[in-house]
Specification:
- Helix content is about 55%, strand content about 0%.
- It is mainly alpha-helical.
- The protein has one domain: lambda repressor-like DNA-binding domains (434 Repressor (Amino-terminal Domain)), CATH 1.10.260.
- Helix 1 packs across helix 2.
- It is globular, with a radius of gyration of 12 Å.
Length: about 80
């Protein structure tokens, strides 16, 4: 039985910004040390970006893509 993940366009936009930052999904995967199939699963909604990966994406993009944009259900937007 396949796991259903609710597609969230807000999260998808943040993921696309991370991909754009590196130019390709394959390069983002390389920077994260994961398989490009994981990125594909995130893009298609078959899997969610984990809390750990949201932090990693924020780190490798130099904060351009925030963890709270990838997983607003886990992280609240930081207020300055």
């Amino acid at each position: 039985m396949s796991k259903t993940v609710i597609y969230n366009p807000h999260n998808a936009a943040a993921l696309e910004r991370a991909i754009d930052y590196f130019g390709t999904a394959a390069e983002l995967a390389k920077q994260l040390g994961i398989k490009s199939q994981s990125i594909h699963q995130w893009r298609t909604g078959r899997a969610r970006v984990t809390a750990e990966r949201a932090i990693d994406i924020e780190r490798v993009t130099g904060g351009v893509v925030k963890r709270e944009h990838l997983r607003p259900d886990l992280y609240r937007e930081m207020v300055a």
